[in-house]
Amino acid sequence: MSLVLGPIHHWMYGKIKTTEARESAIVSAFKTKYGAEADKILEQVYKKYPKSTVNKPLEELLANKPIHQGIQSLIVEAETREAAMIAAFCAKFKDAATIAAEAAHKYGISCGKEAIKNKGLTPADCSNTAKVFEVMGEYLCDGMPCDRGAQVVSESEKSTSWDHESCVHEPYWKEAGADFLTMCNIVNEWIAGFGEGMHSHIGYKREKALATGDASCLSNFTIKS
User: Fold this and answer.
1) How far, in Å, CA of 23 to CA of 80, rounded?
2) Could you tell me the pTM of the whole model?
3) 141-151 burial code (b ≥16 CB/10 A, e <16)
4) What is the CA radius of gyration of the chain?
5) Which of 10, 52, 70, 112 is least crowded, fewest Cβ atoms below 10 Å from its Cβ?
6) Is residue 70's pLDDT more than 80?
7) Are the beta carbons of 126 and 134 closer than 8 angstroms?
8) Does domain 7-223 have CATH number 3.90.1520?
9) Domains in the chain: boundaries
């Protein structure tokens, strides 16, 4: 593999890092809530799903692997580990799913605020739902570029909707033994938080979801009155 990776690969790596940072935010919330019990659970989870080496350069992580295969493996590792961790806590504590969703929402807010600074966005940018959705795509890992991730259904400054015909995350979540709807809720709380972090008047709604039995997912950002 060339030591010089294209921008798209580093773009994907950034999205993977966001997933791993969300996991860390949820872990912190669990440790605060459950104390020493959380450490015991995490020790068992990380024996099967080793902790991330996210601070290593991408070139080192991929080593001699084909680039596409290497990036895909990083996605699988990150999403499976996060789901396994959440599943383990949900099996032990009745309120774990709520704690995880709240932590994901708070982390989403911080990501939205970070995006404003990193991209030098104007107030007009942040109150434009189409722009907010576009920027969110820089942070949210929604499969590989070749996968059919979120597809815009309609977009404008005041309302932007997108759908999914399939869930790219579901196989990893199921492999980890996590509940489909629980994980969907957590990701959706992150999305809601991201919009809120970019502008307090950005509202998020999940209209349909594969995880609730619908034929497809449908979500939207709108400007709250």
Assistant:
1) 11
2) 0.93
3) bbbeeeeebbe
4) 17
5) 10
6) yes
7) no
8) yes
9) 7-223
